User: Which sequence fits this backbone?
């Protein structure tokens, strides 16, 4: 639990924009522990999505280092250590649900029978076993997002990177999906980095919340969330939950006042 | 009369799509025929002026300028040459088939080349920036200027003439395919490309599993344009080729004898249109087989609603 799954060492990111450069991140250092759920929260445009993409080697930092259990982020990506989930489910509309979930396995050269078995298993895990032969457009937004989570987990990556995955869902669906995500993490032991702009979501889900400042983004505080595990539906009515929400909110507000 | 016109669309909507297409096509054909003959009748009755005025009609209505439709149809079933025994329709269809060979070959090679260019452009922005101006410029150069060169060069290189004509035809058909395929290959959202990257997919896997399937709905409208363009390209390509067969040749010789036998040119125009239509029809058939209705570029509101409804 205390071993670092990922380490960010003094990471900075500068984008070239027309007529100048945008300083997205500056001097970000962070250890992400094995098996934890860490949320990144901060004002919009603070670079939390950029940070997530640096972790997953979808972007390369201008300076600093990203290591994943002693490997470079690039090596980790090539080793298929990352599952990714974005705000939009990004399912391939010409593939049925099961074929969408099988896609990563197809690219990894897994045998068709094994692909089928593992996709079915994952769809059962997210409660969509009945919908394997549907097309994405036949599913609701929440169901589509569940398919994208199944697709991200089907090759058993050790790290799940999620970029506002429930941001487009209604409140009821969102709360149900949060419960499901925690259930899945409990079963799979996946390390999860979760970008969100919702304070209650961060408080409910996380072991730790990393609070980020406005651009250039820095991590101003890492808050431990001391809520009983496993988190259940009633956790949201627990005084400790309100305390955690307040703590994150105060931390975000102090950034607002500092700038 | 007014009543029946009003209810016609409602009744049309309840028919199966294929029947609807045939019925509306036939209806419009009938309307056009009635317009043609009424205009002709008007001109003949008033002596070529608008009724009640002395303003002349824009097109003369005598049998040399506007033959009766039944005369055109009848001409199709009379021998093409005096004393010959092959009727005009057969002659034209035979010429059409010859032209279709060049057009189809040009279509296949042109489309393949266009698609190849699009793939190349997605992989190399240098190639795109360097070549795109030439691709666009190629379409502003009149085909009529290029066709003789290709025929002469092809002849020197030992190509059969119909193949030179196919090259000219592909010159027109590659363009819409290149442009639309490029758009289609680039249509997946950035996150889809990021996902492929996170699976450590090779560029070829990204191409075959993401970009090409995504490009299909963009490709087919382009292939329909390319199909008609390749027929036009083949007909124009035949003009300087000095062929004794082909639709281009037939159009040329019937155009020169228009004032004496206008029905023949109209007949040739009819066959050329038929050729283009059936070619596009084939492409549409392939589209129907390869792409489910929810992904086709469609103006059918029911299908559009169906496709949009699920993602909400």
Assistant:
């Amino acid at each position: 639990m205390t071993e670092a799954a990922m380490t960010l060492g003094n990471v900075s990111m500068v984008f070239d924009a027309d007529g100048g450069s945008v300083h997205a991140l500056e001097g970000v250092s962070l250890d992400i522990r094995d098996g934890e759920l860490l949320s990144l929260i901060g004002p919009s445009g603070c670079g939390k999505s950029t940070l997530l993409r640096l972790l997953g080697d979808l972007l390369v930092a201008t300076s600093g280092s990203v290591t994943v259990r002693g490997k470079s982020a690039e090596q980790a990506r090539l080793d298929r250590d990352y599952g990714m989930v974005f705000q939009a489910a990004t399912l391939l509309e010409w593939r049925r649900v099961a074929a969408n979930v099988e896609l990563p396995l197809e690219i990894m050269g897994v045998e068709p029978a094994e692909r089928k078995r593992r996709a079915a298993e994952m769809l059962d895990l997210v409660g969509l076993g009945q919908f394997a032969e549907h097309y994405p457009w036949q599913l609701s937004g929440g169901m589509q997002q569940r398919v994208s989570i199944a697709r991200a987990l089907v090759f058993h990556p050790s790290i799940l990177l999620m970029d506002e995955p429930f941001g487009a869902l209604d409140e009821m669906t969102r709360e149900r999906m949060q419960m499901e995500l925690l259930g899945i993490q409990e079963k799979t032991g996946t390390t999860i980095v979760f970008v969100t702009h919702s304070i209650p979501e961060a408080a409910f889900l996380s072991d730790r919340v990393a609070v980020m400042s406005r651009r250039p983004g820095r991590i101003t505080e890492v808050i431990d969330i001391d809520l009983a595990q496993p988190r259940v539906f009633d956790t949201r009515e627990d005084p400790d939950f309100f305390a955690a929400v307040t703590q994150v909110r105060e931390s975000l507000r102090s950034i607002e006042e500092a700038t | 009369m007014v009543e029946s016109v009003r209810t016609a669309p409602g009744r049309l909507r309840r028919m199966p799509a294929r029947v609807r297409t045939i019925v509306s096509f036939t209806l419009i054909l009938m309307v056009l025929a009635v317009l043609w003959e009424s205009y002709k009748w008007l001109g003949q009755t008033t002596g070529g002026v608008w009724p009640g005025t002395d303003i002349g009609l824009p097109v003369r209505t005598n049998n040399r300028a506007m033959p009766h439709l039944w005369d055109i149809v009848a001409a199709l079933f009379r021998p093409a040459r005096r004393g010959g025994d092959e009727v005009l329709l057969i002659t034209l269809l035979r010429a059409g088939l010859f032209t279709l060979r060049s057009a189809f070959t040009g279509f296949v090679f042109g489309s393949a080349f266009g698609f190849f260019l699009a793939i190349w452009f997605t992989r190399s922005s240098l190639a795109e920036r360097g070549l795109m101006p030439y691709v666009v410029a190629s379409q502003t150069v009149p085909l009529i200027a290029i066709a003789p060169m290709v025929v002469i060069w092809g002849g020197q290189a030992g190509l059969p003439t119909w193949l030179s004509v196919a090259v000219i035809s592909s010159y027109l058909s590659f363009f819409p395919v290149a442009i639309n395929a490029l758009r289609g290959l680039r249509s997946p959202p950035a996150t889809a490309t990021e996902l492929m990257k996170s699976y450590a997919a090779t560029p070829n896997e990204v191409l075959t599993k993401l970009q090409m399937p995504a490009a299909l709905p963009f490709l087919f409208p382009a292939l329909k344009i390319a199909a008609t363009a390749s027929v036009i390209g083949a007909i124009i390509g035949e003009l300087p080729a000095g062929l004794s067969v082909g639709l281009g040749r037939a159009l040329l010789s019937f155009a020169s004898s228009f004032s004496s036998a206008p029905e023949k040119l109209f007949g040739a125009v009819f066959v050329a249109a038929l050729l283009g239509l059936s070619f596009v029809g084939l492409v549409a058939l392939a589209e129907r087989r390869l792409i489910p209705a929810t992904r086709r570029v469609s103006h059918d509101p029911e299908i559009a609603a169906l496709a949009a409804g699920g993602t909400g």
The longest helix of chain A spans residues 239-258. Strands of chain A lie at 4-17, 20-33, 37-41, 63-68, 71-72, 82-85, 159-163, 191-195, 208-212, 219-224.
